[in-house]
């Protein structure tokens, strides 16, 4: 979600300073949540500006560039490995416990293609041919 524009933020503060409407009414009028008005006023008071703050970051992946290179090498050795197989290899070879989602995201970073389930593919093709 994109940050609210500086113009909108200034308009919100101006409407609050006029004092003709409640904060709830101002929030509804401008299409923002009421709690944003409190956060905006606190930011102005504590930081001295109302500009959008930078993104907070998030968690850092446990699979750094070196581990991604290792994972890619394992994929080249065993290209038919499942996510669970790769998760096990990371635990055994690198001593790293990660979730299946982390392995999946790593494969996306490496631009490794998603494998199709052979059983599903066979059943769909068989159904299409009337088998």
Description:
It is a single chain. With 131 residues, the chain is mostly helical. The protein has two domains: 6-47; 65-121. The protein has seven helices and no strands. Helix 1 (6-18) packs antiparallel against helix 2 (23-30). The protein is rod-shaped and about 70 Å long. The two termini are 48 Å apart.
**Shape from CA axes?**
rod-shaped
* Class computed from helices, strands and strand pairing: mainly alpha
Spans with pLDDT under 50 lasting ≥5 residues? none
* Number of continuous helical runs: 7
The tally of beta strands, per DSSP, is: 0
Tell me what portion of residues adopts beta-strand conformation.
under 5%
Order of secondary-structure elements:
HHHHHHH
Query: Whole-Å distance between the termini?
Result: 48 Å
Rg over CA atoms? 26 Å
- What integer is the average pLDDT? 87
Report the major sheet: none
Query: What is the number of independent domains?
Result: 2
Helix content: 55-70%
């Amino acid at each position: 979600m994109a940050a609210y524009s500086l113009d909108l933020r200034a308009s919100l503060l101006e409407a609050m300073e006029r004092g003709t409407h409640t904060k709830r009414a101002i929030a509804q009028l401008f299409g923002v949540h009421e709690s944003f008005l409190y956060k905006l006023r606190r930011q102005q008071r504590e930081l001295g500006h109302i500009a959008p703050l930078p993104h907070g970051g998030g968690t850092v992946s446990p699979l750094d560039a070196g581990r991604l290179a290792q994972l890619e090498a394992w994929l080249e050795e065993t290209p038919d490995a499942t996510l669970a197989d790769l998760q096990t290899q990371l635990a055994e070879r690198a001593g790293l416990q990660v979730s299946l989602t982390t392995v999946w995201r790593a494969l996306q970073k490496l631009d490794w293609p998603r494998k199709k389930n052979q059983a599903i593919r066979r059943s769909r093709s068989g159904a299409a041919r009337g088998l």
